[in-house]
Amino acid sequence: MAKGKAPRATGGSGKAQRGDNTRRLTDLYRTMVRIRAFEEAALAAHKAGEMPGPLHVSLGQEGVAAGVCASLRKDDRLTSNHRGHGHAIAKGADPRRMFLELLGRDGGYCRGKGGSMHIADFSVGMLGANGVVGGGIPIAVGAAQGLKLLKSDAIAVCMFGDGAANRGPFLEGLNWAALYRLPVLFVCEDNGVAAFTAAESVTAGPGISERAASLGVPSTKVDGNDVVAVDEMVSGLAREVRSGGGPRLLHARTYRWTGHTSTDAAAWRDPKEVEAAKARCPIARLASTLAAQGVGAGELDAMRSAAEREMMEARVAARSAPFPGLEVAFDDVQDSGAVGGA
Amino acid sequence: MARTSLIEAGRLAALQEMRRDPRIWVLGEDVARGGLWGQYRGFLDEFGPERVVSTTISESTIMGAGLGAALVGTRPIIEMRIFDFVMCAMDELANQIAKVRYMFGGQARPAVVVRMPHGMWRNSAAQHSQMLEAWFAHLPGVVVVAPSSPADEAGLLVSAIRSDDPVLFFDPKDLWQVEGDIPDGEIAPIPFGKARLLSEGRAATLVTWSAMVPKAQSAVRTLAAKGLAVDLIDLRSIWPWDEDAVAQSVARTRRLLVVHEAVEVGGFGAEIVARMIDRLGPSAIDVARRLGAPRIPIPFSPPLETAVRVTEDKIVRAVEAMCR
User: Fold this and answer.
1) Cβ-Cβ contacts under 8 Å, A155 against chain B
2) Domain count, chain A
3) Is the dihedral of CA A153, A159, A160, A161 positive or negative?
4) Which residue, A142, A187, B4, B34, has fewest beta-carbon neighbours within 10 Å?
5) Quick check: A211 and A242 in contact, CB under 8 A?
6) What is the mean pLDDT of each run of 10 residues along chain B (324 residues)?
7) Does the pLDDT value for residue A5 go beyond 90?
8) How far apart are the CA of B82 and the nearest CA of chain A, in angstroms?
9) How far is A78 from chain B (nearest CA, A)?
10) Rounded distance, CA A322 to CA A266, Å?
11) Domain CATH for A266
C-alpha cells in the first residue's frame, strides 16, 4: 500500500516530488483497476452460474475505496458493508481467497461460511463486510475504543453508505465517538441510492456532513470519483485522527453504475443518469491525470490487463477448488455448548 | 467461607478478574457510578474511566462497541442495566456478536460478557420484568447463563469473563440481596453446563434455574413434609445445559417438571421435556410437564403481578398433581 505524503492533484514542481506523486497516483490506479477487474470477474462468474447467492458490486465507486485505504496502515482496522469487495482489496486482502469465498470453496476467507457479503481478513485489519446496513458503525467505534484502551496508535475506519446514515447506529455511533474522542474515521460512501430508492428522497435535512457536524464530528465533503482528492483528504484526516484529534467524517459522493444486486437491472432509474455517471468514471479520470504527467497509455493498459489476468486466474482457481468438507458447517460456532454434526 | 449477597458476589468476581487482566473493561449506562444496582461499586476509583466507561443510553452502540473492542483484543463486560433493553441492541447481539466467529470462518473471537439483570422485580411492569432466556438458547453462537446463588453468580461470572465465547449472563435481579456463602480467597470458575443437585428424592425430578430456584427450594421442603421427596436440579446455565444430570434423575423418578419464570409457551422447558422424551424414550417417563407464566405481558398492579407469577404454592400443586 502506498504511504507517505499525499500527492497534489496537479502534480509537484520538483522532479523528485513529481516522481513520488506519480508513483502514488499509479498505485491508486492499480488499486482501482484491480477492484474493477475483480468485480467484473465476479459478475461474470455469477452470470455463468458459478457463484451462488447475492452479489453486490461497486462498479463506479472504486475511487472511494482506493483513495481511503491508501493512507491506512495494515494495523488500522476497517469495517465495511454489503458492497465491500473494493474495501477489502484496497485494504490488502488477497483476491484469490476472496474469489474462493465468493464461490463457497475451501480456502476462502470465511471457509465458505460467509460469501460475498461477509469477506473479512483480520490479518490486514479488514474486520469484515456486513450484511446489515449500518452494522459496521458501532463495531468500528468499539474497535477505536479498544485500540485506545490498548494504547495503540492504529485507527478505525468505517465505510458505510447513504442508507446507513438514516439508521440509529449513525446517530449513536457518531455521538459516542465524539464524546470519547475516539480514533475513528467515518466514511460515508454516498452512491446516491439506498437499495432501490434514491437517497435524497428518503433523507431529510441539509445532509450527512451537516448531521455529523451537529454531533461534533468535523466533516468534509469530497467528490468520491476524484480518487486523488479522496486520497489527499484522507491523508490529512487520518493524520488528525491518529494524533488524537478525535473522529472525523468524510462524505464522498459517488455513483453506483449497477443495480442493487447483480440480478437487479436497475430498470427503476433513467439510463441517461447511468451514462452520465460513466462519463465521470474514477478510473478514466485518473488515467487522464496520469497521461498529463507523462504516464503512457501502454503502461496504464498493462496495469489493467495485469489486473484482469489476476482476477481471471482467481476465478478459474476458485472454480476448480473443492468445496469445504461438510464438517466445516459445524465448527467455529462456539467452544462451550458446541453441537456435533456431519 | 464468607457470607455475602448475590450482588456483592458478582461484584467481587468482576473485581478479581479486572485486577487479573488489564484487557477487561466494563461499559454501560452509569457503570462509573457503580451501575444501576451497585454491582460495579468502587470500580471507577480502582480502574479509572478508560476501563469503567459510563455510556450514553445507546444500547446498539453499547453492544456493538463491545464487539468492536473485542475484535481488537480487549475483553469487554457489556452491561445492559436491565435485560429488557437488550431488545434495542438485537442487531448487534443476534446478527453480529453471535455470528462473527462463524461467518468469518473462525477469524473472530468475540470474547464479550453481556450482563442482563432480568426477571420480575417489584412491580416494574411489562418492559422491566421479562424473562426471554429461551430466545437466546435458540440463538447459535452464544452461551446462556442464569445463576441463582451468590456462589454461582461469582463462579459463573468468572467463567464468563474468561470464556472466549460470547456469554449472555442473566443476573437474577430479584435475588440481588439473597445471601449465601462464597469461598474465601480466589473465586474459582464454575464450568458451564454443570447442574447443581439441591435435593434428592424419588418422587419426581424438578428442574429450574435463576429466580425460580429459591421458590422451588421452598416448595421442596413443603413437599417433603407431605411425604414427597424430589430431585431438585438448578441448571445454572441453559446453553449448554446439563442434559446428563436431568436424564439420570428422570430415568430414576420417571416424572419431570420443568419450572421457569418465563412464559410457558415456547419456553426452554419445552426443549428439556422434548429432549428427555427423545433420549429416554416415552416408555421411560410417566409424566413430563412444564410450569411457567401464562402467555401475557407482566402487569403492574401488585395483585395482578402476583396472579401471573410462578409461586411456591403453584410448584407444590404441580408436583402433587403429577404424583397422584
Assistant:
1) none
2) 1
3) positive
4) B34
5) no
6) 96 98 98 97 98 98 98 98 97 98 97 97 93 97 98 98 98 97 95 98 98 98 98 98 98 98 98 98 97 97 95 98 94
7) no
8) 19
9) 11
10) 34
11) 3.40.50.970
Note whether B143 contacts A: Cβ–Cβ < 8 A: yes
Residue contact B143–A333, C-beta within 8 A: no
Q: Are B69 and A149 a contacting pair at CB < 8 A?
A: yes
Residue A340 lies in a domain: no
Decide if A11 is inside a domain: no
Please report the ipTM that was assigned to this predicted complex.
0.96
How far is residue B61's CA from residue B88's CA, in Å, rounded to a whole number? Answer: 10
Check if the beta carbon of residue B14 is closer than 8 Å to that of residue B31.
Answer: no
Q: How far is B48 from chain A (nearest CA, A)?
A: 11
The Cα–Cα gap between B300 and B128 comes to 10
**Domain for residue A145, yes or no?**
yes
Give the global pTM.
Answer: 0.95
Pairing verdict, β B167-169 and B113-115? parallel
Is the CB of B141 less than 8 angstroms away from the CB of A337? no
Spell out the residues 6+ positions from residue A288 whose beta carbon is closer than 8 angstroms to its own: none
Closest CA to A72 of A230, A300, A286: A230
Dist. CA A281–CA A250, nearest whole Å: 20
Nearest to A231, CA basis, from A240, A219, A218, A222: A222
Peptide bond into B240 cis (omega under 30): yes
The answer as to whether A234 is a domain residue is: yes
The residue segments making up the domain with residue A263 are 22-322
Q: Which domains does chain B have, with CATH numbers?
A: 2-182 (3.40.50.970), 196-323 (3.40.50.920)
* pLDDT number for residue A267: 85
**Distance (Å) of CA B303 to CA B248, B307, B308:** 39, 6, 9
- The b/e string for A173-184 (b: 16+ C-beta within 10 A; e otherwise) is bbbbbbebebbb
In A153-244, beta strands by DSSP E: 156-161, 184-190, 193-194, 197-198, 219-223
